[in-house]
Design a protein that fits this description.
Elements (H helix, E strand, L loop, with lengths): L5 E5 L5 H8 L3 E7 L2 H10 L4 E4 L7 H8 L6 E4 L7 E3 L2 E3 L5 H13 L3 E6 L10 H11 L4 E8 L10 E8 L18 H5 L20 H7 L15 H7 L13 H4 L9 E2 L16 E2 L9 H7 L12 H10 L3 H12 L3
Parallel strand pairs: 1-2, 1-4, 2-3, 4-7, 10-11
Antiparallel strand pairs: 5-6, 7-9, 8-9
Helix pairs in contact: 1-12
Length: about 350
Amino acid sequence: MKSKPTVIDLFCGCGGLSYGFIEAGFEVLLGIDHWKDAISTFESTHKNAKGIVANLFTETPKDISKLTGIKDIDVIIGGPPCQGFSIAGKRIIDDERNQLYKSFVSFVKYYQPKVFLMENVPNIVSMGKGIVKDSIIKDFEKLGYTVVYKVLLASDYGVPQNRRRAFFVGTKNNKEFVFPEPTTENPISAKEAISDLSENSVKDGSKYKTEPKSEYQKLIRGKSDGIYNHEITIHSEQTTSIISLVPDGGNYKDLPEELRKTRNVNIAWTRLNSKKPSFTIDTGHRHHFHYKYNRVPTVRESARIQSFPDTFIFLGSKTSQYKQVGNAVPPILAEVLAKEIKKYI
């Protein structure tokens, strides 16, 4: 008998979602993504899993099964990009970009896992007045699954970030999955997440200079032997002087009139609020700044805000690392969902 339920992660990126499943006691066998950098990070952080660089636009489940020898799987997870949902009247037009979503469906059809979990942007639920959501549910119901969905807020589950994501969960045997209740009433603040990390860059593997300053920092350091991915961005003198005028938790509205338009996006010149969870971490667009220091958060600070443990080391260029972090599902949220899914297997 295999001791742990098995998982395949499609469109896995660096593996935030599947890392949460590992922490919840699953065995992740395989991660597939078309981006080589993300797969390098995935393989180095998911010790027993195989990472494959493949385009799910063209690769079929049969191809992948042949290549990996994986015939049987308990859970399929992943976040297929869904920008292909063009809507006309009450139906989805067959846009070729839907192929990636259809690929996810085809893997579920081929492997017939006991449970699947599909993650996406929150507005997938309201797109086309619910047409997209209804189509997704119908596609999986045809395969014999009972499907539920919910938009969850990561900060309700111990992640120091107000990130909203939609999750669809399908189960077999007419059992309906029940989403977990929030695990915390006191959301973790940005300061609790990153206040022990220094203003300046540190060399990969450097020892921590201070004791953890919060329970969250204690948890996130775990068994890490040091700090990685904490290389700061050097901004121009103008950027540094402008951001220095914005208070903790402030934004462009705190600037003098003549400086407000220096960046033409409404999220520009926003500082983290030290007393609240962070806003959604993006893939490194550089409009969001540290609550105290006059710079953008480092990759490690961003990873902390996404709830990656300090032992999770990102590979590739700094730009690539930011993108890997920003695209991920927060592992702590994934772990809460995974523990709940375990009850249905």
